Amino acid sequence: MRRMQSPHSPKIAFIGGGNMARALIAGLLRQGVAPALIHVGEPSPDARAALQRDWNVKSSADNAAAGRDASLLVLAVKPQHAGQALRALYPTLLEYRPVVLSIAAGLRLADLARACPPGTAVVRAMPNRPALLGAGVTGLYAPAAVTSAQRALAELVGAAAGRAVWLRAEAELDVVTALSGSGPAYFFLLAEHMAHAAAALGLSPDTAALLAAETLYGSGLLAHQGTALAEERAAVTSRGGTTEAALGVLQQGGFDALIARALRAASERSAQLADMLASTQPTEPE
Ligand SMILES: NC(=O)c1ccc[n+]([C@@H]2O[C@H](COP(=O)([O-])OP(=O)(O)OC[C@H]3O[C@@H](n4cnc5c(N)ncnc54)[C@H](OP(=O)(O)O)[C@@H]3O)[C@@H](O)[C@H]2O)c1
Fold it and tell me: pTM (2 decimals)?
């Protein structure tokens, strides 16, 4: 028998209770979702104990028990475990018909859909690491057949980690992976180089690292306010001043072309990894 949930109190199942699931659960609780509405399927007893202790959310070693009655099932295992986990959940997906939201990097909708009963609403999301602090940004993609109510359910989880942005095509997730997924590493690298350069100019390494990290943090807060990035840059750059001198060196050194190449490499790698993952997915339900 197919059971329906009230749209006002959707039960959310997480399959996998690792780092990203914990970040998303923390965000949902911050948004006022009751802990009783969240149930996590997770094999590790330590991870289950931590979920109970930290947030009082139910967890189970049995994914089918976690998925019972769920309106939304968040697939939060490593990509290589996702196909198998979904196939084992086939009867649960058939009975309760939850929206499946996959955060597994690179696992494509076609492969996810093959592991689910026909007609399952499947949505993909790519969160990023700042989600751990509620400051993430998540790219979401759903095919046209996914209804607006189903999208709203999926967005609840995306927005719990920070901001959620809907994409126009699944392939855009490779670009999102290159931009916001890998992006924190680019900013950290830039800050590391800035700190090393400042230390070479005479600051103590600790002071330089502190100043670089705090500059990264403060700049992020300014960017978060929504002013155009170029405007924020212009606000620091007076004609003939120190910032203009530094930016001139970066431009002459091909900084923009280098960044464009870096993002292209990350996006192409994301697509390659997805191809490799697709070739390893099992084809028959368990
Ligand atoms: N972390 C990030 O910044 C980030 C960003 C974007 C997307 N993602 C995606 O998020 C997903 C989870 O990443 P993560 O960093 O949270 O990984 P993680 O910390 O390793 O969490 C995965 C959890 O799933 C558990 N698990 C393994 N097989 C399972 C199964 N069959 N059923 C239920 N649970 C199972 C694992 O338990 P064991 O450890 O006992 O195996 C582990 O606790 C990945 O697909 C990743 O691509 C992560």
Answer: 0.90
